[in-house]
Amino acid sequence: MTTMTETSARFREFKMPDVGEGLTEAEILKWFVQPGDTVTDGQVVCEVETAKAAVELPIPFDGVVHELRFPEGTTVDVGQVIIAIDVAPGSGDAPAPAPAAPAQEPVESADAGDGDAPKGRTPVLVGYGVAESSTKRRPRKGATAAPEAAVVAAAVQAELNGHAAPAAPAAAPASAPTVPAQGGRPLAKPPVRKLAKDLGIDLATVVPTGRDGVITREDVHAAEAPAVTAPVAAPASSPTSSEAPAAAVASGSARETRIPVKGVRKAIAQAMVGSAFTAPHVTEFVTVDVTRTMKLVAELKEDKDMAGVRVNPLLIIAKALLVAIKRNPEVNAAWDEANQEIVQKHYVNLGIAAATPRGLIVPNIKDAHDQTLPQLAASLGELVATARDGKTSPAAMAGGTVTITNVGVFGVDTGTPILNPGESAILAVGAIKLQPWVHKGKVKPRQVTTLALSFDHRLVDGELGSKVLADVAAILEQPKRLITWA
Asked: Is 66 an annotated catalytic residue?
């Protein structure tokens, strides 16, 4: 689809593209440019989050940013214009016809309006007013304005920045925290949001001291003690929008937090429900002595051929699963409900479940079956690093065939994993612990773990699933089978 339009010889508009294989909307996480900034073809101007991943969007032409149509935190439909670019700055042409305010005047007064504003739009966005009966703007710089008008303009600017504006220009007491209303979103960088989440602090109750009303780490720490020891006063009008940010819902005390289900989390929920109630799951378990595997990991860490890549037990487990699939290729398949067919895959796109600040995602290593051990180690390292940075692309999560989920990193012995939609099997790896084990007729301390394999019983019967799980266990018990069985 076309993602840019030409509004005149001078101004061009860039639309929200379909960055996620048919997804219909995306949330603007962060703008990297502001009105007046110069941009070049291919420069990243913003980061958006779809139901699958966070994606950076590059601008496809040179020019100067004329206008940002939506603030950070706004969910925008695919095809809507998100930014306007002046591709011929200084040419003297008339401003491009658009409902937005000029770049020099991003702040509108509270009575600014536009009859063409989209239906149902509740936030005050750049270029869209809240009243339909007036088209007045606040005076330009240098013009005399009443103090009340200045307060109103400041309130609207706060809402443009993600804070909610008060209903009237009356100023709140200096000591009162800034609490968003009507779906407003406190301004804070992702690390600060994570800190607040970890501490159980609602950002809506934190008083911002950073520039332009941005909440800092210090603000969060300052709010930590009061948030625990003192009740939070309820605002005069509590947020009621279904798209309101996480906020304490209690009278006199913060007893609940409500978090909107959207983006990656919403997609996860829908996919897991669909998988759990569509594919008949069967899970089998095996406990195995992996002492020799742990010794191999230690040796590989010192091997010069593995220099520059991360070696850990997951690498050997991944290789073991690939060998087990090679020995039992029927497990690498998918159920085609529409055509009532079992689709055998002659390649393995190995999915690795990764926990990220935005939720669980499952990127996969394309054609993992063709990779050597050093190549697989490099691919695993790159996949994990990209996921932690929140940069995993939708393409990296598409087309998986079999998945590994490593719950052992959380100290968990094992679990009953739910299939990634469209896949036939998922292997859960539990914590590797030193346990008493009968070895060569004697009880000795050995490194032991429990594996769990869930599979789609429509296309994988008990015998096939058992063979795959037994092969993985046998390889981890005797890693030399990676050579003899490969």
From this structure: no
